[in-house]
Amino acid sequence: MGTSLSDYLLAVRTGAWVLSLPIRLRGRNLQRLVESLHRPAGPASQTPLDPGRAARIVARVCRLRLFDLPLFPGTCLRRSLALYHVLGRMGHPVAIHIGVRKDSGERFEGHSWVTLEEKTLLETNPLERFRAIFTYPRAQRPC
User: Fold this and answer.
1) How far is the C-alpha of 6 from the C-alpha of 26, rounded, in Å?
2) Of 17, 31, 43, 74, whose CB is crowded by the most CB atoms within 10 A?
């Protein structure tokens, strides 16, 4: 399947959004930023892209060398924030997760990822390696 106009538009919009991340993060903690990005899942998307294809486009944009400059968040965080933003705006029920683990030298390592309908996007089982310490929106548990 070839690249469509929708793919290019999504890539450009994502790139522009990621360029704005340093400003969005300035003076705001991560939780407030994530809360400001939250849009309750409504009817799925006006765009013809399926969420898997959209996620791959977003991830590709987030790996551009420009975004490796020190003023941008690390790769997994910028990808997770962008996925959460883009797929949420498309009307998909996504959640963002931040996890930690101790490495062999007693240092903590952080990681973030996004789930769609409780399935991890673009990676395999981060919960096998990391303990989630923040999830937004929090899962609604039946009473």
Assistant:
1) 31
2) 17
